[in-house]
Amino acid sequence: MIIFIALSLVYCGFLLWVRYHWGQIEASGEAGKALLTFSVVIPVRNESSNIAAILADLQSQEYPRDLYEVIVIDDDSEDGTLEIAVEALQKSTVNYRLIRLKDDGMKGKKQAISKALELAENEIILATDGDCRVGPRWIQAYADQYTEDIQMITGPVRMVQHNFFTRLQSFEFAGLIGLGAASLQSGNPGMCNGANLSYRKSAFHEVSGYEGNHEIASGDDEFLLQKIFKIYPRGVVFLKDKRAIVSTPAKDTLAELINQRKRWSSKWKFHKSYYIKLMAIAVFFNYLVFAYMLMASFMNETSFAIFLSIFMLRAFTLSIFIKPVVVFLGIRNAIWVSLVIEIIYPFLVLFLGIASIFGHYSWKGRYYS
Q1: 281 band by pLDDT with thresholds 50, 70 and 90
Q2: Pair 85, 101: CB distance under 8 Å
Q3: Which of 218, 323, 327, 356 has the fewest CB atoms in 10 Å of its CB?
Q4: Strands of 135-226, DSSP E
Q5: How far is C-alpha 133 from the chain's CA centre?
Q6: Nearest-angstrom CA–CA distance, 351 and 356
Q7: pLDDT tens digit string along 136-171?
């Protein structure tokens, strides 16, 4: 029990530390009217049900048409994505390029992005995914944030919720976004999301792009973040601007969620950052002890009372951290969801920690181990 109490106090302290650094991030607003040129890069595979929507969002940007181009890279889709993209882009008034990756004998998201950067006409890259949605001021928000010193900007992503299961995912994902932003603000970059990411093409080439991790299916975002931050520690920032929020769908089934989290967690063992490795080990051990104490406390009334008190402290501290993040992202019901997450999340983390080492996962019809 003493170990559990000690770990819980460290856990709560860490959440308060994250909350502090989230609050230190300066929020951007509507004041700026900067005009820069962008190349919007969208790697896609099997996104026939989504691609038209994101292309329509880019057509509806409140930003001069001649200042951005859209590059869609099709990674050998098998569901008609390419045909739908062609039809949508032909009706568009924005400058666009449509690339078939397999024509160059390549495959994979990192190869797709690298190919797009070879053809991009503009210095600043703005990347998202084929299943995402962006607001009409998305590009403008990035234009307002860039200065001469900034080399990379990580952006906010929100999961769309429509039932209890997706609401839990949205809440958990908001925590990851907040943690990634706060860690970057503290000078210890840990995670970002390729669904909303921008960087200078020159910085990408300066760090040799994805060289050194091409063989890893995931991590096109975080590994690049680590490499650019190493050279430009003051040139990487999080964009705390509601105009820049990108929406992405949550998973509808538990099997899909587990597969997604296995894919995400599989890249952690390849990180070179001691901060990330230490955090991963600490989180796993913390939740291991939590799960054990939860089950053991039912055998003793005193132990259960202590456990319940510590549990409420953990959930309360989690709500302190997460509330400003979910308010920023437009997610409701933070308090009661934090109680549910505090019970479910330890078991999910333990399962994924083991599965990421021994398990297999799939992505867009491709299977990895």
Answers
A1: confident
A2: no
A3: 327
A4: 152-154, 157-160, 197-200
A5: 14
A6: 9
A7: 999 999 999 999 999 999 999 999 988 888 888 888
pLDDT (tens digit per residue) in 170-212: 888 999 999 999 999 999 998 899 999 999 999 999 999 888 7
DSSP β-bridge partners for residue 124: 38, 200
Query: In this structure, how many other beta carbons lie within 10 angstroms of the beta carbon of residue 305?
Result: 11
Query: What's the rounded Cα separation, in Å, for the pair 338 and 322?
Result: 8
Confidence band for 221, pLDDT divided at 50, 70 and 90: confident
List Cα–Cα distances, 214 to 46, 47, 281, in angstroms. Answer: 21, 23, 25
Q: CB count, 10 Å around CB of 178?
A: 25
Residue 217 pLDDT exceeds 60: no
Length of the chain: 369
> What is the distance between the alpha carbons of residues 21 and 156, in angstroms, rounded to a whole number?
16
CATH level 2 (architecture), domain 31-270: Alpha-Beta Complex (3.90)
Q: Which amino acid appears at position 174 of this protein?
A: A
Query: What are the CA-CA distances from residue 16 to residues 104, 207, 289 (Å)?
Result: 49, 34, 21
Contact 188, 226 (CB under 8 A): no
Give the range among 53-67, 80-94, 216-230 with minimum mean pLDDT. Answer: 216-230
Strands 38-44 and 124-127: parallel
Q: DSSP string covering 284-330, please?
A: HHHHHHHHHHHHHGGG-HHHHHHHHHHHHHHHHHHHHHHHHHHHHHT
Strands 95-100 and 68-74: parallel
Cβ(175)–Cβ(164) below 8 Å: no
